[in-house]
Amino acid sequence: MPMVNVTVKERNTAVLPCSVSSLGSYQVVWTDQVSTLLTFEDRRIIDDERLSVERPYTRDWNLHIRDVRYSDQGIYNCQINTSPVKIKTINLIVQVPSKILDHLSSTDVVVREGETVTLVCNVTGTPQPTVTWYRLSSSSKGSEKQKVGVNGEVLVIHNVTRFCGDSYECVAYNNVAPPANKLIKVYVEFAPEIYLPNKRIGQERGKETILECTVTAFPHAVSMWQKDGIKLTTSPKYR
């Protein structure tokens, strides 16, 4: 008799079917992959209350496993004590939703311009999840989510610039709901840069003049004004 595959999601109930016609005085038992006797007729033998034999019809000897665990996965045999023994083999496949292992994955990272940053999302699940990376950007138009890199547990960004500083999200999914996700922030350090809206300003003698400059840097820079190499301090003349 060919093997039958039964697929069930972790924590659900697995129903392993076994139908017997014209059983007569013969008996039905269930065993696992190491030949442990699980049930005898409709009675549970092992000390696991999750297991039971359910008989919706007279010919049915279905094995139910409630609250299925990944460790339950494997081969189960429905046997009739004929000579030779008749066996129906069930292969139980337990699907496990994606999970990200935080202690083996990246946390927020600080990197300098020109360096390489490696982000890691270590995942588990059955079947093996696919990991997709996204960049989450905020702008005046709202939030944008853009796929970046290639699928996999590792995202490498070479020759980082300040414009790479953003939030990155890894999403793990294996067609078993729900997907898992993790957000990682990348901060890029760069030296201060000064922008002068007006490099030359004309003004009448004795009039107030506003000099303006914009400084960009990360971490935020401490700025000061100098005149002829001398630091200016707050006074009635400069403020």
Automatic annotation (TrEMBL):
Signal peptide: none annotated. Coiled coil: none annotated. Its main location: membrane. Residues 1-91, 97-185, 192-239 form the Ig-like domain. It comes from the Eukaryota. InterPro entries: Ig-like_dom, Ig-like_dom_sf, Ig-like_fold, Ig_sub, Ig_sub2, Ig_V-set, Neural/epithelial_adhesion. Keywords: Cell membrane, Disulfide bond, Glycoprotein, Immunoglobulin domain, Membrane, Repeat, Signal. Pfam families: Ig_3, V-set. GO terms for cellular component: neuron projection; plasma membrane. It is found in: Cell membrane. PANTHER family: CTX-RELATED TYPE I TRANSMEMBRANE PROTEIN (PTHR12231), DPR-INTERACTING PROTEIN ETA, ISOFORM B-RELATED (PTHR12231:SF253). This is Ig-like domain-containing protein. It comes from Biomphalaria glabrata. The gene is 106074282.
